[in-house]
Amino acid sequence: MAPTRDLAASTATSEHNAGLPDPRSNFGRLLQMPAKGPATILAMDIAVPPTYYLQDAYPDHLFNVCNLNHKVELKAKYKSFCEKSGIRKRHMLLTEEVLKANPEICTSMAPSLETRMNMSVVEIPKLGQEAALKAIKTWGRPVSDITHVIFATTGSVNMPGADLVLSKLLGLKPTVRRVMVYMGACNGGTTVVRIAKDLAENNKGARVLAVVAESTILGSVPPNEDDIDELHAASVTADGGVALIIGSDPEPNERPLYEIQWAGETILPNTEQAIIRRVTIAGLHGRFRKHLVSFATSLPKFLTEVREVVGGPSWDEMFLAMHTGGSGLLNAVEASLNLPKDKLQATRTALSEYGNLQGASSLFALNEIRLRSEELGCKTTGEGWDYGYVLAFGPGITLEALYLKSCPR
């Protein structure tokens, strides 16, 4: 005899699930089985605030709005940092009007966390939304085809998270599967791509929206002679967002940009205290500058080990996109890897035009490679090279790399 169902229990279950999505219609298309091919970047784009400041004029602007022009030596040091940064302009959400309306942000160690958070929880998702809409338009498929969202930021901490806020702004399905990455710092971009790769390759039909949006709202610190690390950071950091659509087994109407053939990371020994930032009553404060050279000097060994796993050409026969930490860092990487001067040109362009965008930086550099490949008429999306790396580093010190295969243009 076939088992019978308890009608009362069935009715109770139906009442309990009233108003919830029908699992058959919302989850059925995304099968819990692996895709056939590797994850690919199907579209990408960037967004920055409309207000920008030229780097050579920024010291005067900052010291004027913070009423610090009497600190002549400090201003001279800050100006020197700006001159050596390799930056032409930086886009900012903290405009002169915003700073004048919120003077606590311009006062060293003044309680300003609530002011900063009230701004960042609104503006960070908006930056992500702008970048996402541009990437989705290029992708050419409906927003309802997005199955997963990953959002990374170091510029905000909140519940509900920026991943949920972005999903609402874009009108994504309530069943979209979300991942939120807070405080990923300067390797946040490579981290979201690494996670997206795993999701795309292990969920047939998945289309992952990966977003990184960063702002100086939480971490912008007024010049202070007792905090040289933050003074240096204030000379290079800026605001911006980047979005990518990632999925395996491209459909005929999709045009892949890069195959993500490998993604991984390593932690440098005895560097746990090298990069530290904490949320305080006065915003995000920390130290990090002294040990950044270890990132550059560790790259040859790290990339050699990666090559033993993935094979492929040597790094001087590949395209390279990396975190735009500053001209000093890029110079150190060029010296450590013995690179020709033009190898990091796309990264230097991203640094020049947008500054240090923390987690979004390395992906801004990759976007520049995409654009340069088109402008120069290269045969591939990797400036003519078949393979390339996206490199970043963050707290740990963590070295993270993406190994990409470019696609024909």
TrEMBL record:
<dbReference type="InterPro" id="IPR011141">
    <property type="entry name" value="Polyketide_synthase_type-III"/>
</dbReference>
<dbReference type="InterPro" id="IPR016039">
    <property type="entry name" value="Thiolase-like"/>
</dbReference>
<dbReference type="Pfam" id="PF02797">
    <property type="entry name" value="Chal_sti_synt_C"/>
</dbReference>
<dbReference type="Pfam" id="PF00195">
    <property type="entry name" value="Chal_sti_synt_N"/>
</dbReference>
<keyword id="KW-0808">Transferase</keyword>
<dbReference type="InterPro" id="IPR001099">
    <property type="entry name" value="Chalcone/stilbene_synt_N"/>
</dbReference>
<feature type="region of interest" description="Disordered">
    <location>
        <begin position="1"/>
        <end position="25"/>
    </location>
</feature>
<dbReference type="InterPro" id="IPR012328">
    <property type="entry name" value="Chalcone/stilbene_synt_C"/>
</dbReference>
<keyword id="KW-0012">Acyltransferase</keyword>
<comment type="similarity">
    <text>Belongs to the thiolase-like superfamily. Chalcone/stilbene synthases family.</text>
</comment>
<feature type="domain" description="Chalcone/stilbene synthase N-terminal">
    <location>
        <begin position="34"/>
        <end position="250"/>
    </location>
</feature>
<protein>
    <recommendedName>
        <fullName>Chalcone synthase</fullName>
    </recommendedName>
</protein>
<feature type="domain" description="Chalcone/stilbene synthase C-terminal">
    <location>
        <begin position="259"/>
        <end position="407"/>
    </location>
</feature>
